[in-house]
Amino acid sequence: MIVETQCARFDSLALEGGASLSSVEAAYETYGELNADRSNAILITHAFTGEAHAAGISHETGKPGWWDNMIGPGKAFDTDRYFVICSNALGGCQGTTGPGSINPATGAPYAMSFPVITIRDMVHLQKMLIDQLGIERLLCVAGGSMGGMQALEWAVSYPEVVRCVIPIATTWRHSAQQIAFNEVGRQAIMADPDWCDGDYYDKKPPARGLSVARMVGHITYMSDESMREKFGRKLRQKEKFGFDFGVDFEVESYLRYRGNQFVSRFDANSYLYITKAEDYFDLTNGTGRLSDAFGRADTRFLVISFTSDWLYPSYQSQEIVRLLRRMNGDVAYCDLPSNYGHDAFLVDVAEQTEIVRGFLDSTARTAKAA
Amino acid sequence: MIVETQCARFDSLALEGGASLSSVEAAYETYGELNADRSNAILITHAFTGEAHAAGISHETGKPGWWDNMIGPGKAFDTDRYFVICSNALGGCQGTTGPGSINPATGAPYAMSFPVITIRDMVHLQKMLIDQLGIERLLCVAGGSMGGMQALEWAVSYPEVVRCVIPIATTWRHSAQQIAFNEVGRQAIMADPDWCDGDYYDKKPPARGLSVARMVGHITYMSDESMREKFGRKLRQKEKFGFDFGVDFEVESYLRYRGNQFVSRFDANSYLYITKAEDYFDLTNGTGRLSDAFGRADTRFLVISFTSDWLYPSYQSQEIVRLLRRMNGDVAYCDLPSNYGHDAFLVDVAEQTEIVRGFLDSTARTAKAA
What CATH number does the domain containing A183 carry? Predict the structure, then answer.
């Protein structure tokens, strides 16, 4: 399945913070065919550093999509049955308007003049894309981590537009610890003199700061157990310790590699804006009353968490589930056993596949019967 | 109790890595009185960024010691009964020889020409200090975190010199995740151009890199729950989000404050050397056979962990305890309930006090009877 990223254009987008953007672009891909009554569309929302290329092999790069193990013929999001859409999030750096985009008012990159955005703004842009594609109602919005926040926000902002949502490994509001890890990443980037207050687009990017930020991220995506299994105390290339500050351990080598690799594909300012959107995320707008947020929702929910995920721990999913149950909502929940930590939704997909497939099938049948 | 830091001097110290240091100094403090038969001495070993000033009020700074709630008259380490010693660890920056010390061969600071040191080297220097103080046998070596590693190393390197050890919130070998967090801190420091390959002693220190490293540390010292209780999503000074990159949340403000504050009291190169010593720490020297390490030990053990400590999780203490039990060793173990995470051994000391007091008392009585 060779796929190409497409681009939708919009004149303007009003933002939750009060600002507005003009000439907004959204990069997206689609997989499968939209059926005649336009009832089989599924929107996939990506995590922090994801992109529109979720499945198939990219025409441009030859690389598989980030959720190719979940999206395709016969897979959880079965492209023989469903029309699957994935768009790069607002604020990103892979085709959708973000801080690295050209500000039409100045002809130069926005950099830090880009307005602070929210998860709701991301969802708003996705809704405009869905409208442009002529889809009145989505069968499902599904995603993990920040993608799960967007799925939840869809159920709150556009409950009449989405039959079901599948928030995975996520939370209904960012916690102090989650904010803290994001803040460390931001400070690492801003501490890099190459960041230049965000104006580095015609110079070298703040590679070392961004790399440190990514290293912290990678630790939080894995579990203590998966790191022990994958690396333990294995040494890199030596019989003994080097007794110097070169790489001694495999885990050091892995983190440095992943940090450096990330710099070539991700924009440091997007890192700042997207982490800020996550930190602002609170479905209840600070009231703490989840019931108000979901008050209007008759959407079906499938909530999934993973036992070893300590970045978005299961209890945060369970708070959503308990609330929806108290409201007599239609909610299924699975706390899947996995050692992979937060990464589980990307890599440990066997059981997740069965659960998602069954849930989508029953939602599609219910929709047809209605 | 006004206390003064003292300094012991030694001609040389041979290191595990093969190098040796000349003109080594060790800063230390003592509390209480050594009894006539010199049988009541307890060595306290400090955590990563600790110092010799463990108890009482410093004559120099007017500040209480870092474990003043555990050491003093009537406290867990009762200075009415015991003679308590605490020395700044080798490689540190608060009086003991470290990378910021003057290399007598050159007259300039060692900086990165300082040899890589190990936990065993730290313990070796402590043994030389104990010898100089005329103490043949310690009643106890006790400490938390890296202090716990030193306590365990004492039991392995000098079993005949220590009647009991109290390793708290620690591990018998640094895990991949523990190494990973340390490596992020090191990379943050080394990414700071002010680090200058360690040669910053006559210039400004790598303050931003060191601050980022400390921020990561602070997250790992607290628990998800204690951060939620202390900060939650509380905003700093605003009714609403700032929609900018200033401080929005209390937790951001706290981390920035703690990061900046740390720079004034800690040397970045010491951060590098001491984290490296932690990462090299493996009581079994890579064999994984704990029984070999403890083969000669007839020392009594009191092992303490805390339920919410995810940096040095309880299972790591339990591995030590299980091994010692299998060897028919004299080992007591408590997994204390606490929400404070790794910081618990410093702040949540009520139950810890009772347990330590009883254990020391029974050890002292056993010693007298023998």
Answer: 1.10.1740.110
A365 shares a domain with A262? no
Interface ipTM: 0.96
**Is residue B309 less than 8 Å (CB to CB) from chain A?**
no
**Which residue, of A258, A275, A292, is where some domain finishes?**
A275
Model confidence pLDDT, tens digit, residues A203-241: 999 999 999 999 999 999 999 999 999 999 999 987 789
CA distance A188 to chain B (A): 6
Q: Are residues B291 and B253 in the same domain?
A: no
Q: Which of B117, B194, B216, B260 to mutate to test the interface with A (most CBs of A within 10 A)?
A: B216
* Same-domain status, A166 and A150: yes
For residue A129, the domain's CATH number is 3.40.50.1820
Per the structure, the complete domain to which residue B341 belongs is given by 2-174+284-369
Mutation test of the interface with chain A: which of B184, B192, B236, B278, choosing the one with the most A Cβ atoms within 10 A?
A: B184
Q: Is B145 a catalytic residue?
A: yes
SS (H, E, C) chain A: CEECCEEEEEEEEECCCCCEEEEEEEEEEEECCCCCCCCCEEEEECCCCCCCCCCCEECCCCCECCCCCCEECCCCEECCCCEEEEECCCCCCCCCCCCCCEECCCCEECHHHCCCCCHHHHHHHHHHHHHHCCCCCEEEEEEECHHHHHHHHHHHHCHHHEEEEEEECCCCECCHHHHHHHHHHHHHHHCCHHHHHHCCCCCCCCHHHHHHHHHHHHHHHCCHHHHHHHCCCCECCCCCCCCCCCCCEHHHHHHHHHHHHHHCCCCHHHHHHHHHHHHHCECCCCCCCHHHHCCCCCCEEEEEEECCCCCCCHHHHHHHHHHHHHCCCCEEEEEECCCCHHHHHHHCCHHHHHHHHHHHHHHHHHHHHC
Q: How many domains does chain A have?
A: 2
What are the pLDDT digits (tens) for B314-365? 999 999 999 999 888 999 999 999 999 999 999 999 999 999 999 999 999 9
Instruction: Give me the residues of A, 167-226, that contact B with CB < 8 A.
Output: 173-177, 179-181, 183-184, 186-188, 190-193, 208-209, 211-212, 215-216, 218-219, 222, 224
